[in-house]
Design brief:
- The structure is a homodimer of 477-residue chains.
- By secondary structure, chain A is an alpha/beta fold.
- Chain A is globular.
- In chain A, helix 1 crosses helix 3, helix 5 packs across helix 12 (353-365) and helix 6 (156-166) crosses helix 12 (353-365).
- Helices cover 43% and strands 15% of the residues of chain A.
- Chain A has 15 helices and 16 strands.
- The first copy, chain A, folds into 3 domains: 3-72, Winged helix-like DNA-binding domain superfamily/Winged helix DNA-binding domain (Arc Repressor Mutant, subunit A, Orthogonal Bundle), CATH 1.10.10; 95-123 and 370-476, Aspartate Aminotransferase, domain 1 (Alpha-Beta Complex); 125-368, 3-Layer(aba) Sandwich (Aspartate Aminotransferase, domain 2).
Chain lengths: 477, 477
């Protein structure tokens, strides 16, 4: 047996067991078959089973008990409360987060820090091998193709694949409506550029992904922060009030697995949001970069699914669910499509070619779905572990979101804890995190932090332990 | 002998002969050694020599004469006159070229058209093989590295290589001052974004690269077109006058191998330009994307070499001299560095990772210089052939630039020939070109066209012949 085959075997076994745990076949707190039993049942070597159990243990799904065997890890039932609905002032405000955000960016490239700050995904080894194999094949077989300009709207084959996938999100997009970008960040830039002029007011969630806030700052736009419920999303009542009292040029939301809230807006509210904005002819920019990373049974729909007037600009990327280094995103911009296509050509010419060919092949071949199944389970599990750790190590009066997808957690600490102070203390201790300050134009969240749970391991738990100690200290003062 | 070795042999022989021709060892019009003689002299097979001669013939360096052998091709001495210095109105103007430029972009992706329009480089087969080999190695050896974010300012190793190369252009840049972008287009966007606000006036050359004009349009900036000499570049006298009569926020030039003029601004004038702008504290955005594609002996200096106040924003890319599909450019922005780094992070997050690692290795390994020597010779030769063809097939009263680098030609046709009409006629005949209209915000060049000579072959010559016929017809009306 080649090492490659063996590698796949133990990972597959681990996945099968994880599935059984997920479906309650092996219930929480119960013992699973011993290594010897499993080896006989599955006709696999002892060492393969040991490797699988080791993996499941690292993933936190099972735990060994001395002289007794492996048990399904019990989930802690008691919960920290969620943060409450935010209550920002309904006044538009210019954004100025420049320096703080650049500091965070620099941290994220520092290999000596525990990376709890930036929303870096886990680069799954098996996925990377697959993508690299595809790229190597393209280079070998279609050498020059990888080097041509791939002018807007981008590679046909990739746009076809994206259109097909979006059917699961309730959307019937034509490939012609989809434009490939250099990552989702560029898609946000062009979307706001297309529908706003400097000084315009953009309604956003509170808290809001700091990338959105930064883009508003770069374009001289004013942010109008709308109260947002940690699970239901942006308050439609407050938004309607804001629309009646301001000239709002665009609304930006992350409706699925919000950054930083981790929540999925209920489908009915998505429809209501689209209806409200349609009535007022206001474009909705919907960022769906984590849409495929759901923990539930089904791919959630997008607001764009309810769009009848071409007012919803839906954007996404492959940075969170495949690879950020490839720089591939996309936007389906309804009535703004030709404007955004022109901006793309004018301001960035084209997107990298080899990644487009490779990801198109990956999606065609079905490897993407397989990968997503694996990574969803992993993220769900790691978010669970991270939540447990926060619960365990952070002081009372801590509140915590309940993400239903993605890999980030939003933590509300006691009111007297300043996240910027915590950020500085944590850095001294080799930990970086995203302080709440960068998720609001008006400093709504001084005592919040965002944590990245994409890879949760022993070191992460130790970092959370140290962090919890610091928060306790700060809370006491 | 493996096929790979043999391939290199004939190409190397061809290069050696091309060198001898270049140095006049085989003078123009003279016979070169017969295939049999060369085979004996070099101890190579007849078929290798035949392949080398075939290549030299395709490159237009030698020509076969029946029953006589191969001769060094004679260069046509008589010349068409150059276009005159442009004379635009010195009034700032908003730009509106949207639709026409998008039409050109779509043409450039049409494989059924003779591509004389877009400035697509020749994707040299040997280069592509080398770059692909490097990429395949990186994928194999450093699989995950290629997939990480590579946040601004971008890959250290690549920035070090760029800094080293720029010494040849008279510049001592620190790697820390260099920021990697997704191609040169993005670098232009961020540069203008950093120094201008909507409505501001930007002084540009006349004619000007349409990408610059488009970027002005996208940012709501006003273009002030300055008279420009086809070889000496932007008129410093006119620019000074313009500065005295307008509040100019930035100046954009392509000082080396201008697009579309092909000319290199004399070094002294570069210095004078920098001095003039320093005096008025006006930033200069210098686009040097073709700086390495010189036909002369030496890498020309850049304006940035004379910058003492950090006012020159120098940008370039690897799209014209390596591969456009990789999407790699860079900018050294002096006092605007941190602003542009922030814009890069905010509006595009990062540049594609694998290309950065690959190009850094390519530059480190010395392959780039070897490639540049080859491609410079090829472009010089193709520009020559294209000039000959225009001279031969276009009507009298045609004027033509004398590029000293790059691969494009700027052609002035008789005054009554409208390039847009010609563009439409040419399309019917399977040819696309860039009409003069897109090189000015105020339609200064209705009877000009820009031609791409990067790949000149038999089909190109036939296209120029058909084009010449159309121009003659239009000139008669």
């Amino acid at each position: 047996m080649s090492p490659q085959t063996k590698l796949l075997h133990y990972q597959e076994l681990a996945e099968r067991i994880a599935d059984l745990i997920g479906h309650g076949i092996y219930p929480q707190g119960e013992r699973i078959p011993s290594v010897r039993q499993m080896s006989q049942q599955q006709n696999l070597s002892i060492s393969t089973v040991l490797q699988a159990y080791g993996l499941l243990e690292r993933q936190g799904l099972i735990e060994p008990r001395p002289q007794s065997g492996y048990y399904v890890r019990a989930h802690v039932e008691e919960r920290l409360p969620e943060p409450e609905t935010s209550s920002p002032q309904l006044d538009p405000s210019h954004v100025s987060l420049h320096d703080l955000v650049m500091m965070l960016m620099r941290d994220s490239a520092n290999p000596n820090l525990a990376q709890l700050g930036a929303a870096l995904p886990h680069l799954d080894e098996r996925l990377i091998q697959t993508i690299n194999r595809i790229m190597a094949k393209i280079i070998r077989q279609r050498g020059v193709d990888a080097h041509q300009y791939q002018f807007p709207p981008g590679l046909d084959a990739l746009r076809v694949q994206i259109a097909r996938r979006m059917v699961n999100a309730g959307c019937s997009l034509s490939p012609g409506e989809i434009l490939i970008t250099c990552g989702g960040t560029e898609a946000i830039d062009f979307s706001l550029h297309a529908v706003c002029r400097p000084g315009d007011i953009v309604a956003i969630e509170s808290p809001s992904y700091f990338g959105t806030l930064q883009t508003l700052e770069a374009h001289g736009l004013r942010a109008l922060e709308i109260p947002t419920h940690p699970r239901d999303g942006i308050s439609l009542e407050a938004l309607e009030f804001a629309i009646e009292h301001n000239r709002i040029h665009a609304v930006v939301v992350i409706s699925n697995f919000n950054n930083p809230l981790g929540s999925k807006m209920p489908d009915e509210r998505k429809k209501d949001l689209v209806d409200l904005l349609s009535k007022h002819e206001i474009p909705l920019i919907e960022n769906d970069v984590c849409g495929e990373l759901y923990f539930g049974e089904k791919r959630p729909v997008v607001c764009k699914a309810f769009d009848t007037k071409g007012l919803v600009i839906l954007l996404s990327s492959f940075s969170k669910d495949i690879s950020p280094g490839l720089r591939l995103g996309w936007v389906a911009a309804g009535r703004y499509s030709s404007e955004i296509e022109w901006l793309k050509f004018t301001l960035s010419a084209s997107s990298p070619t080899l990644p487009q060919i490779a990801v198109a092949e990956f999606l065609e071949g079905g490897g993407y779905d397989q990968h997503l199944r694996r990574i969803r389970r992993e993220y769900a599990h790691n978010v669970e572990l991270m939540s447990d750790a926060v619960m365990h190590y952070f002081p009372e009066r801590t509140r915590l979101t309940r993400p239903s997808g993605g890999f980030i957690l939003w933590v509300q600490m006691p009111a007297n804890v300043d996240s910027l102070e915590l950020y500085k203390m944590a850095l001294q201790s080799g930990i970086t995190l995203a302080p709440g300050h960068v998720f609001s134009a008006t400093s709504q969240f001084p005592n919040f932090i965002r944590l990245n749970a994409a890879t949760f391991n022993y070191a992460t738990e130790r970092a959370i332990e140290r962090l919890g100690g610091m928060v306790k200290d700060l809370a006491k003062v």
